[in-house]
Amino acid sequence: MFNLVIGQYVPLDSYVHHLDPRSKLIGVFLFVVIVFLANNWLTNILMILFCFAGILLSKMQLSYIYRGLRSILLIVLLTFVLNLFLASGGTTLFSWGWFHVTTGGLTQSVFIAVRIMVIIVVTTLLTLTTSPIEITDGMESLLNPLKKIKMPVHEFALMMSISLRFIPTLLEETEKIIKAQAARGSDFTTGSLRGRIKAIVPLLVPLFVGAFKRAEDLAMAMEARGYHGDDGRTKLHQLKWSWRDSLLISALVLLALLLIFARN
Amino acid sequence: MEKIIEVSDLSYRYSEEQPYVLKNINFTVNKGEWLSIVGHNGSGKSTLAKCLNGLILPQRGTVNVGGFMTSDEEKIWEIRRLVGMVFQNPDNQFVGATVQDDVAFGMENHGLSREIMAERLSEALRLVRMDQFAKSEPHRLSGGQKQRVAIAGIVALQPLIIIMDESTSMLDPEGRKEIIQTVRALNRDRHLTVISITHDLEEAIHSDRLLVMNDGELIREGKPHDLFKSTALLRKIGLDLPFAIKMRNVLRAKGVPLSDTALFQEELVDELWTLHSSM
Amino acid sequence: MDITFEHVTHVYGRKTPFEKLALDDVTIRIPSGSFTSIIGHTGSGKSTLVQHINGLLKPSEGKITVGNFVIHAHEKKKDFKELRKQVGFVFQYPEHQLFEETIIKDVCFGPMNFGISDAESTKRAEESLQLVGLPASFWHRSPFELSGGQMRRVAIAGVLAVRPQVIILDEPTAGLDPKGREEILSLFDDLHARLKLTIIMVTHNMSDAANYSDQVIVMDGGKLLLAGSPKHVFLQEDLLRKVGLDIPETMLFLNKVLDKAGSKDKIPAFTVDEAADAVIRILNGVKDHV
Ligand SMILES: Nc1ncnc2c1ncn2[C@@H]1O[C@H](COP(=O)(O)OP(=O)(O)OP(=O)(O)O)[C@@H](O)[C@H]1O
Ligand SMILES: Nc1ncnc2c1ncn2[C@@H]1O[C@H](COP(=O)(O)OP(=O)(O)OP(=O)(O)O)[C@@H](O)[C@H]1O
Ligand SMILES: [Mg+2]
Ligand SMILES: [Mg+2]
Predict the structure, then answer these.
(1) Owning domain of residue B105
(2) What ipTM does this complex have?
(3) ABC transporter domain: which residues (chain B) (predicted)?
């Protein structure tokens, strides 16, 4: 249960793992834009090849990637079928009532399915190879210019990393409260909808009270350890942009150029 | 002896409508000593502790820490560096996503350079014997391990004083022992001044000095041996007694003519022995 | 209501990377009306064990009987309500489960869930609050305005109000000051003596286990290590130490006295009074020999 929620970071020693989170974030962003350039078989195959290269370089097992994909497979299938019937063009392959499946529709659906899949694969690869804290650090660093216009970038990043840190704690707490109220005869799983909604109150109130208490304690502890906002603060983790990162961005630019060249 | 904290005429209340929860407190802390503070629930121990690192500023009186006043806004961050504080709940003070991030948190706040941080980080973790766990996440650690990480975070700031506010009360006996041993070593080897708030009298009797709080007042102060000579007062304010004293009292009631000096079990055994061989 | 465990095994997170064998072939018997303490190192499976008694956890293997109620591994979904009415459970930090606007309403929560009428629930709630010693002037206040010790009493009253035959306590005194600890423990001791309730207490405090119980169960790494009377268990000092446990402080003190007298004896004395008598006996005994 924990792993589902915190993302599925798998610590390995690979090219992709050692990339700077900033280049990975920029890379995923670029990739998602580039994907929309693909509009024929050649360009789509190029996208797929690029994804496979990424997976190979991350030393990630295909089964992990598949696990990330599994949850959205149904959506992909649905869009595929919808597109199959809605898109038109080319010769008709098959008709049923007023549904027509055309060659144009078929290729169109395949392209859209591929597009969704590669986007999912790339973002899954990001969360598989980057710990939540690295992602937060990377975001903070990328959004740094926004501090000039008084955006609370540092506070936002800190909030995010603390929330991530407390997710397992709160899940454990939830489980404990569910058990304790179940022992007092409360029942969350059966009964009418109204009954179930009522049964959620004894769970939510203690959960909120506990979370507020925690937040209060945490604020006190942070202050005692000298926390006073962003100014004069240093960081243990320094993000280092290396040749690998430049290589990744160059590869993406190259991919974009190739796609522009090869699309029709 | 060099004084490191001086509290004079301190009074504090949480708001105007509420009564004072600390009343006219005066005491000093010597450099390098182990000072315990005992008292029943709600007697004001935690509030007092928060006055010592400026988390709370008293309405009346002053607190001087290592030459700085907690009321001096310019110096407050320096005071918080000098005075580390370990709280009760191991989970609610673990800020970082991993052990090393948490230890670094305080150093980051105080703007230390990365080289110094890296150096002190590994040293602090070694000191609390958590170096194997640098990359671990908090939910994979036991309560005692989390508290040791909190101590490492404080040690890394090279403080003068460490305050423990019931830091062992949520731990199992083994976790408790680990923490006490760790802090003892810091007190002995690094001459860190320790202020320990505790309900565990077996721990408190081993300190250099004891403060007894009752309803916001500091009612007794002294060396453990002197303080436990007369137990009537401590009983009256609802404090427990150390085991050796309970034993001593029962033995006396059964007619064994013991004195009222023994505080540790070993002392009591020795006294029983001398008494017995002279009979 | 006798409670028996027959070859009970519990595995957390089966078929995941976090799979953990928390109970390993445990067979025990807890007689009706007894006071049983469960001790063991952190992570030895104490909480896992007791959560099987009211169906909060289901066994992966084996069989559990509580009175007439039988729980088998590999059986279909079951309704545990009747069982939970008979078996009350006080968790560690039970005050974290309070949620109602007033204390009395919170205490009524249990009985009402088990289908007891409003009037009867209120009557039981009042009785329980009296039992835990919370003055009536508090009853209509919010439970969140109380001190830690008082909150814990309210939470315990909430369990008592269901009038269970068996009460399970998982480290009921954690985080309390010595006075609060003493009060909570004597409350349960009293309930055990007067109402003949079966009490099962998980504890890290050897003196409490020795002083209050008829039977002590020692867990180690998910396995049952020892079970028997406090005397039987605490005389096996070496074995206990091997699994990271201690003996009661009275016995530790007697060991020191016996050491001095050059004796290797072990004396099972658990109250200060018993220990003092033993000390006097030892001293006189030594004198007789000289
Ligand atoms: N944030 C607060 N706002 C208002 N009153 C408070 C607050 N914190 C504590 N108090 C009150 O101040 C008094 C002293 O509380 P404090 O927490 O210092 O006691 P303590 O000796 O640490 O007790 P314990 O042993 O339970 O930790 C108590 O009466 C308490 O109710
Ligand atoms: N919900 C859970 N999921 C996975 N593993 C668990 C879960 N609860 C407990 N465990 C594991 O099962 C083992 C036994 O845990 P249990 O809580 O029963 O121990 P315990 O004797 O009660 O310990 P403590 O003295 O710390 O309360 C431990 O190794 C623990 O990490
Ligand atoms: Mg306190
Ligand atoms: Mg437990």
Answers:
(1) 3-224
(2) 0.92
(3) 5-240
